[in-house]
Automatic annotation (TrEMBL):
Location of the 3-keto-alpha-glucoside-1,2-lyase/3-keto-2-hydroxy-glucal hydratase domain: 34-262
Source organism (scientific name): Seonamhaeicola maritimus
Lineage: Bacteria, Pseudomonadati, Bacteroidota, Flavobacteriia, Flavobacteriales
Pfam families per UniProt: 3keto-disac_hyd (PF06439)
Source organism, top-level taxon: Bacteria
InterPro entries: AL/BT2_dom
Name of the featured protein: DUF1080 domain-containing protein
MF terms in GO: hydrolase activity
Length: 265
């Protein structure tokens, strides 16, 4: 009887051990493989395009790397922005993915920056090819996840939606307003904020701030006002926007980015 009981205990121990190993293997299989888009050392994997300057020209050293952080830097601008809107594009295009990073606004806006651009930046997704951007084009045709910092007083949401040359559907209705506010909290001062975007081709797109979903919409497509090559973009109106490049903005207020990563789905 004792031998039989001992055998049963041994079998159960082996079975439990196998179950645990199987569980560990399953966890290992579903481990998310996030890839760093920014190496914290240089901008070799990125393409810079600033209005009035050809792609690849980092005018006035606008984008720099310091202490593992990508910075929008205006030290050489002498407090004059002159509408030189800029974007820095990762070299690869993507379609289905999750993108995440941390950002914060620092210092003061350049004196001639637009009022709406104060503590304002953005992540442009499904962007057109940076090598085909017009010399004097303000913004790429894209979907913008607009990043805003609080002014210390008023409520000001972040991870909003703006649509340069595009439209989306919300609640099964084609949304033609250029900018739509999210449900996020306001983040004042120079605190770091985590933003994540889930992008499913031309299906659903979701915005998250500090892990909380603050906006979602469907069916990104071409349409609406553009500031360059209007005849060409008119021929694409209503067609689905399935993928493209990812870029970060420079709009006259210093801003910093770090922990820039992507998980392809």
């Amino acid at each position: 009887m004792i031998r039989k009981l001992f055998s049963i205990i041994i079998c159960m121990t082996i079975l439990i051990g196998c179950k645990n190993k199987e569980k560990e293997a399953t966890v290992e299989l579903v481990k998310e493989n996030w890839v760093k888009l920014f190496n914290g050392k240089d901008l070799n994997d990125w393409v810079i395009k600033i209005k009035g300057h050809p792609a690849g020209d980092n005018f006035n050293n606008t984008f720099i790397v310091e202490n593992g952080i990508m910075k929008v830097n205006y030290e050489k601008y002498k407090d004059t922005f002159n509408n030189t809107f800029g974007h820095i594009y990762h070299k690869k295009s993507y379609s289905n993915y999750r993108f995440r990073m941390d950002y914060r606004f620092t210092g003061d806006q350049l004196s001639d920056g637009a009022g709406w651009a104060n503590r304002n930046s953005g992540i442009m997704i499904h962007c057109e090819d940076p090598m085909k951007i017009g010399l004097d084009q303000n913004f790429p045709v894209s979907i913008e996840v607009q990043l805003l910092g609080g002014n210390g007083v008023d409520e000001r949401s972040t991870a909003n939606l703006c649509t340069p040359g595009t439209h989306v559907e919300m609640n099964s209705v084609l949304e033609k307003n250029h900018c739509i506010t999210s449900n996020s909290k306001t983040y004042h001062g120079e605190q770091w904020v985590n933003v994540e975007i889930e992008v499913r081709n031309d299906s659903i797109i979701k915005h998250f701030i500090n892990g909380e979903e603050v906006m979602s919409y469907n069916k990104p497509q071409y349409g609406g006002k553009v500031d360059y090559n209007e005849v060409f973009w008119k021929t694409k109106e209503g067609k689905p926007l399935k993928g493209g490049y990812i870029s970060l903005q420079s709009e006259s207020h210093p801003v910093e980015f770090k922990n820039i990563e992507i998980l392809e789905l």
